[in-house]
């Protein structure tokens, strides 16, 4: 059992964790500091024990928020953060930098913001095309050896990159977007993680809100909401994708669960090493999501779900061309391609 899985067991973590990004980053209006602290404490009290943040989120504000909220409970949960991608304070632009000296400096800064001396898993947020993954992972491995992090993690990487990295230093977890309508990890990453006994931490398991049924053609995304620039949510693609969603919502009603709970149950069913970390600003939604922990799908229902929202049916790529340029994950061939 890897250090990552051992830590989850130590803190008696549910399979479902909390993606903290939404509180400070990515979806427009951010929560007030006091509201964010209250939400994180409520999440802990209702049973969550896996909290995920990053240097990037809110230009370090999300790490500070998590540190303020939960540092006194630090020994009771698994803490995950990320390095290698940050906001440049001068330009305000996102910068990817996987050089060893940068990762070490960012780790030290993360520890300060999180008010701790140890991060349980520290992910390389994005692969730096100018730095060999072995070099970045080797630097993170030294931080493990020094006791500053518990496990090396990778985010948005291919199975090929994972295997290269693992040969340099054992990887504990890989983050990738994985949901019923984003199945790219099934090309190779799900099996690669299983073979290496690496956790596959599924972010956006609710399809960035799409699978909850809360988005329709009248939805107006707030300024700064990343979904406004994502092809699947565009005026050209969203109506067709909503048509695909109808059977999914109907099945949720048939099973007397919410669409969000059904989406999380599907992700959990993809393997014992697959762990979803849905993000939300809503305490009520946190409670709703956690209730999916005990939801197990019968094979017949799982088979039905597997045939819904398949890559050949979903309209639009998950990222814009500019966003995709920073991603190392495998992609499905477009219709007509070999």
From TrEMBL:
Q: What are the residue boundaries of the NADP-dependent oxidoreductase domain, all occurrences included?
A: 15-305
**Pfam families linked:** Aldo_ket_red
Q: Per its UniProt entry, which superkingdom is the organism in?
A: Bacteria
Instruction: Identify the InterPro entries for this entry.
Output: AKR, Aldo-Keto_reductase, NAD(P)_OxRdtase_dom_sf, NADP_OxRdtase_dom
The record's Gene Ontology cellular component field reads: cytoplasm
Q: By its UniProt entry, which Gene3D superfamilies does this protein fall under?
A: NADP-dependent oxidoreductase domain (3.20.20.100)
Q: Which UniProt keywords apply?
A: Oxidoreductase
Q: A single Gene Ontology molecular function, please? A: oxidoreductase activity
Provide the protein name.
Aryl-alcohol dehydrogenase-like predicted oxidoreductase
